[in-house]
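Contributing new complexes? Match this layout with NDP.
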Amino acid sequence: MRSELFREGLLEGKVAIVTGGGSGLGRAAALELARLGARVAICGRRREPLEETRSLAPDGAITVDVCDVREEQQVDAFVEQVLERHGRIDFLLNNAGGQYMVPAEDITPKGFRTVIRLNVEGTWLMTHAVATKWMIPSGEGGKICNVTLSPHHGLPGMAHSSAARAAVENLTRVLSIEWSRFNIRLTAIAAGHFETETLLTKYPEQVVRGVAKTVPLGRLGRPEEFAWLVAFLASPGGDYFSGAILTIDGARDNWFGPYPPPGLADESGKPPAEARRPRA
Ligand SMILES: CCC/C=C/C(=O)SCCNC(=O)CCNC(=O)[C@H](O)C(C)(C)COP(=O)([O-])OP(=O)([O-])OC[C@H]1O[C@@H](n2cnc3c(N)ncnc32)[C@H](O)[C@@H]1OP(=O)([O-])[O-]
Ligand SMILES: NC(=O)C1=CN([C@@H]2O[C@H](COP(=O)(O)OP(=O)(O)OC[C@H]3O[C@@H](n4cnc5c(N)ncnc54)[C@H](OP(=O)(O)O)[C@@H]3O)[C@@H](O)[C@H]2O)C=CC1
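Output block (do not edit by hand):
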């Protein structure tokens, strides 16, 4: 299948890594990069979903490795394997991540560490390995894109993850400065609510039922909308983006709920305006 948006061969010759490529946003991104001609290496903890992603891509476009991004030795071995196989790495999407929903007072020290370790340490280990094994010594640089969370003003029930994603966004900013001398460009995509299978099945039913109503556009994002942004960043169109946090969330960061709020609009859907007072 061809990309619905971009020209064929746009990413010919490029090599990309997508962590967590076996499902949801990671799968959508890996498939779009592969459709555009990139060779894509995906990883995750379970082989089966990764193989399924591979089976959906053009023959030979996607390779699969089991790798837990929290484990330093596995990350090193994975990156070395990709370099052995493909000889270069142009683009890294740190998509593997997540959390569980829980009131903050019920987060145990182990639970907090678990979420920080996956999102912050996992992202860091992969970023550091790709930079030090290829992007810096090759002299070629490259692009690294992290996945974070919108809303930035805090997501109740996800205190651990809100903290972790803020850390990843600042890491993105500081590395975009430090590693500009190596021509490494870093961005973060702050994703709002996307209709992935995990989002629709992992969280409590009442949360899933109501989540679109917390988005001004009134709907969840579609995985392909995320994948198009990733492909754009990987393409020459993304060459001058660095240090930027790109929020893709149907305006969720700026408001909590559909706009106009229910009950406030007139019959045509128009929000109210105050009457002008006569001048004294
Ligand atoms: C509206 C939503 C917006 C959507 C955003 C998205 O990101 S959608 C996409 C989202 N996608 C994802 O999130 C995908 C990736 N997420 C994951 O793999 C897991 O959610 C993970 C981050 C917990 C890591 O898993 P793991 O296998 O490494 O860890 P483990 O299972 O072995 O747990 C270790 C410790 O964590 C704690 N703890 C864990 N769960 C709960 C709980 N429900 N309750 C309470 N506590 C919990 C507990 O302390 C446990 O230790 P214990 O008590 O067992 O000794
Ligand atoms: N869907 C949404 O609305 C939003 C999603 N996000 C973020 O976007 C990313 C993708 O989300 P989504 O596709 O919805 O969720 P998924 O749960 O489908 O994706 C997470 C992927 O990461 C992999 N993964 C998890 N832990 C590890 C690990 N330790 N090492 C390697 N791979 C791992 C999982 O595979 P496996 O279990 O086999 O390891 C899975 O394929 C996540 O970071 C998520 O938090 C952010 C905001 C909103």
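Reviewers usually confirm one structural detail per submission. For this one: Residues 15-251 form a domain with the Rossmann fold fold (CATH 3.40.50.720).
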